[in-house]
């Protein structure tokens, strides 16, 4: 088990749960960061006494600096520079990447260069630049342990030797609108989309879970984490969220990981691996289960999922464009400036408009990310202007 960690995004959903896990296990939080929720960060700082803190937002970071003046806690830079400072903090053995979006990419690479363990909760890092990140991790000898419940499940199930794995089985609940038609989902509001039936998550990932884009991003992430081809991954709709994922081996054996839907469990495992420790999570009572259901996804009713799987097969800059355009579109939806169904429309349009590069460099990936975000913003502004 590690003794000290950095938590990038400690005030978000995964970050807050990571803080609680650290408190319970006695793991030192050497550095904490937030986007702009400095009130909660100050509470966490008082409880955990980190050596370093920062806020991504420049104004919030200055308020944080003023609040902590004379306390002995170092307040770093705002923006990406602050995240990189935190990710490479000398006394930490591990970095929990709990920030949302492609902003986690460079700090993750910096942490890998510093040979930290990466407790990876930021899926966009591998979606956008999985080949770059995994190659860097192999080169530097850095450990990457997934925090996503599905990937943590696969990670725990993969006891087989290379060549014995036939298929990765990724499960997903199907979200709150499972089975709805496009006409029905046109009525979906942000309040409806953020209410996941089984999991407690942040707003952006809740919307991604509703559209099933999240499962598509996890599909791409799994390719890189476990070095498997798209045809070696199968997505299963599993409404109960009890089987978090499974693997099928070449002899027909299926090994699955089951548990209550509680993100504290994969967070804890990423911090204690290869050991296991007692947890405070509720225990799964198999006798209380009325049944476990599995079904194939209806890709016609889940166009975001279909789009993501197609991008996984295309490779190149397609996943980066997909992830960035989706992130921008979801932000507009949460701000009530875009309809629910238009999330897919915007992402599909971005993929059709941004130049595709089959074998991109890191700079190409970052440029594709920026171009996709700009495309969605400009498309939205154009649509609003023409309707006024």
TrEMBL record:
<dbReference type="GO" id="GO:0070402">
    <property type="term" value="F:NADPH binding"/>
</dbReference>
<feature type="binding site">
    <location>
        <position position="123"/>
    </location>
    <ligand>
        <name>1-deoxy-D-xylulose 5-phosphate</name>
    </ligand>
</feature>
<dbReference type="InterPro" id="IPR013644">
    <property type="entry name" value="DXP_reductoisomerase_C"/>
</dbReference>
<feature type="domain" description="1-deoxy-D-xylulose 5-phosphate reductoisomerase C-terminal">
    <location>
        <begin position="144"/>
        <end position="226"/>
    </location>
</feature>
<feature type="binding site">
    <location>
        <position position="196"/>
    </location>
    <ligand>
        <name>1-deoxy-D-xylulose 5-phosphate</name>
    </ligand>
</feature>
<keyword id="KW-0521">NADP</keyword>
<keyword id="KW-0560">Oxidoreductase</keyword>
<feature type="binding site">
    <location>
        <position position="218"/>
    </location>
    <ligand>
        <name>Mn(2+)</name>
    </ligand>
</feature>
<keyword id="KW-0464">Manganese</keyword>
<feature type="binding site">
    <location>
        <position position="148"/>
    </location>
    <ligand>
        <name>Mn(2+)</name>
    </ligand>
</feature>
<feature type="binding site">
    <location>
        <position position="150"/>
    </location>
    <ligand>
        <name>Mn(2+)</name>
    </ligand>
</feature>
<feature type="binding site">
    <location>
        <position position="124"/>
    </location>
    <ligand>
        <name>NADPH</name>
    </ligand>
</feature>
<dbReference type="GO" id="GO:0030145">
    <property type="term" value="F:manganese ion binding"/>
</dbReference>
<dbReference type="InterPro" id="IPR026877">
    <property type="entry name" value="DXPR_C"/>
</dbReference>
<feature type="binding site">
    <location>
        <position position="122"/>
    </location>
    <ligand>
        <name>NADPH</name>
    </ligand>
</feature>
<keyword id="KW-0479">Metal-binding</keyword>
<dbReference type="InterPro" id="IPR036291">
    <property type="entry name" value="NAD(P)-bd_dom_sf"/>
</dbReference>
<comment type="similarity">
    <text>Belongs to the DXR family.</text>
</comment>
<feature type="domain" description="DXP reductoisomerase C-terminal">
    <location>
        <begin position="258"/>
        <end position="374"/>
    </location>
</feature>
<feature type="binding site">
    <location>
        <position position="202"/>
    </location>
    <ligand>
        <name>NADPH</name>
    </ligand>
</feature>
<feature type="binding site">
    <location>
        <position position="37"/>
    </location>
    <ligand>
        <name>NADPH</name>
    </ligand>
</feature>
<feature type="binding site">
    <location>
        <position position="14"/>
    </location>
    <ligand>
        <name>NADPH</name>
    </ligand>
</feature>
<feature type="binding site">
    <location>
        <position position="12"/>
    </location>
    <ligand>
        <name>NADPH</name>
    </ligand>
</feature>
<dbReference type="InterPro" id="IPR003821">
    <property type="entry name" value="DXP_reductoisomerase"/>
</dbReference>
<feature type="binding site">
    <location>
        <position position="173"/>
    </location>
    <ligand>
        <name>1-deoxy-D-xylulose 5-phosphate</name>
    </ligand>
</feature>
<dbReference type="GO" id="GO:0030604">
    <property type="term" value="F:1-deoxy-D-xylulose-5-phosphate reductoisomerase activity"/>
</dbReference>
<feature type="binding site">
    <location>
        <position position="214"/>
    </location>
    <ligand>
        <name>1-deoxy-D-xylulose 5-phosphate</name>
    </ligand>
</feature>
<comment type="function">
    <text>Catalyzes the NADPH-dependent rearrangement and reduction of 1-deoxy-D-xylulose-5-phosphate (DXP) to 2-C-methyl-D-erythritol 4-phosphate (MEP).</text>
</comment>
<protein>
    <recommendedName>
        <fullName>1-deoxy-D-xylulose 5-phosphate reductoisomerase</fullName>
        <ecNumber>1.1.1.267</ecNumber>
    </recommendedName>
</protein>
<keyword id="KW-0460">Magnesium</keyword>
<feature type="binding site">
    <location>
        <position position="149"/>
    </location>
    <ligand>
        <name>1-deoxy-D-xylulose 5-phosphate</name>
    </ligand>
</feature>
<feature type="domain" description="1-deoxy-D-xylulose 5-phosphate reductoisomerase N-terminal">
    <location>
        <begin position="6"/>
        <end position="130"/>
    </location>
</feature>
<dbReference type="Pfam" id="PF02670">
    <property type="entry name" value="DXP_reductoisom"/>
</dbReference>
<comment type="pathway">
    <text>Isoprenoid biosynthesis; isopentenyl diphosphate biosynthesis via DXP pathway; isopentenyl diphosphate from 1-deoxy-D-xylulose 5-phosphate: step 1/6.</text>
</comment>
<dbReference type="InterPro" id="IPR013512">
    <property type="entry name" value="DXP_reductoisomerase_N"/>
</dbReference>
<feature type="binding site">
    <location>
        <position position="150"/>
    </location>
    <ligand>
        <name>1-deoxy-D-xylulose 5-phosphate</name>
    </ligand>
</feature>
<dbReference type="InterPro" id="IPR036169">
    <property type="entry name" value="DXPR_C_sf"/>
</dbReference>
<feature type="binding site">
    <location>
        <position position="209"/>
    </location>
    <ligand>
        <name>1-deoxy-D-xylulose 5-phosphate</name>
    </ligand>
</feature>
<dbReference type="GO" id="GO:0051484">
    <property type="term" value="P:isopentenyl diphosphate biosynthetic process, methylerythritol 4-phosphate pathway involved in terpenoid biosynthetic process"/>
</dbReference>
<feature type="binding site">
    <location>
        <position position="215"/>
    </location>
    <ligand>
        <name>1-deoxy-D-xylulose 5-phosphate</name>
    </ligand>
</feature>
<feature type="binding site">
    <location>
        <position position="13"/>
    </location>
    <ligand>
        <name>NADPH</name>
    </ligand>
</feature>
<feature type="binding site">
    <location>
        <position position="11"/>
    </location>
    <ligand>
        <name>NADPH</name>
    </ligand>
</feature>
């Amino acid at each position: 088990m590690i003794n000290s960690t950095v938590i990038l995004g400690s005030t978000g959903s995964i970050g807050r749960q990571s803080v609680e896990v650290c408190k319970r296990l006695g793991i030192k939080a050497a550095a904490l960061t937030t986007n702009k929720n400095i009130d909660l960060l100050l509470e966490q700082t008082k409880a955990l006494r980190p050596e370093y803190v920062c806020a991504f937002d420049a104004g919030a970071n200055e308020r944080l600096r003023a609040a902590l003046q004379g306390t002995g806690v170092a307040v770093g830079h705002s923006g990406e520079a602050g995240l990189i400072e935190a990710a490479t903090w000398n006394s930490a053995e591990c970095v929990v990447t709990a920030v949302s979006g492609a902003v986690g990419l460079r700090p993750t690479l910096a942490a890998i260069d510093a040979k930290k363990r990466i407790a990876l909760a930021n899926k966009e890092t591998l979606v956008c630049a999985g080949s770059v990140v995994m190659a860097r991790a192999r080169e530097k000898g850095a450990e990457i342990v997934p925090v996503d419940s599905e990937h943590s499940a696969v990670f725990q199930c993969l006891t087989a030797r290379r060549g014995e794995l036939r298929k990765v089985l990724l499960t997903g609940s199907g979200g709150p609108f499972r089975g709805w038609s496009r006409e029905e989902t046109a009525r979906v509001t942000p309040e409806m989309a953020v209410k996941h039936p089984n999991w407690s998550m942040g707003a952006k990932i809740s919307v991604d879970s509703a559209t099933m884009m999240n499962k598509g991003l996890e599909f791409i992430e799994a390719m890189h984490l476990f070095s498997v081809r798209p045809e070696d991954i199968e997505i299963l709709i599993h409404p109960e969220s009890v089987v978090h994922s499974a693997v099928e081996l070449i002899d027909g054996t299926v090994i699955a990981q089951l548990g209550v839907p509680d993100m504290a469990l994969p967070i804890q495992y990423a911090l204690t691996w290869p050991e296991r420790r007692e947890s405070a999570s509720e225990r799964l009572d198999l006798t209380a289960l009325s049944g476990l259901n599995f079904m194939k996804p209806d890709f016609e009713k889940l166009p975001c999922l279909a789009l993501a799987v197609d991008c996984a097969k295309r490779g190149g800059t397609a996943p980066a464009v997909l992830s960035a355009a989706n992130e921008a579109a979801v932000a507009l939806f949460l701000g009530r400036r875009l309809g629910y169904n238009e999330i897919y429309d915007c992402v599909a349009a971005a993929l059709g408009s941004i130049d595709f590069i089959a074998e991109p460099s890191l700079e190409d990936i970052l440029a594709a990310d920026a171009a996709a975000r700009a495309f969605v913003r400009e498309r939205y502004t154009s649509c609003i202007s023409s309707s006024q």
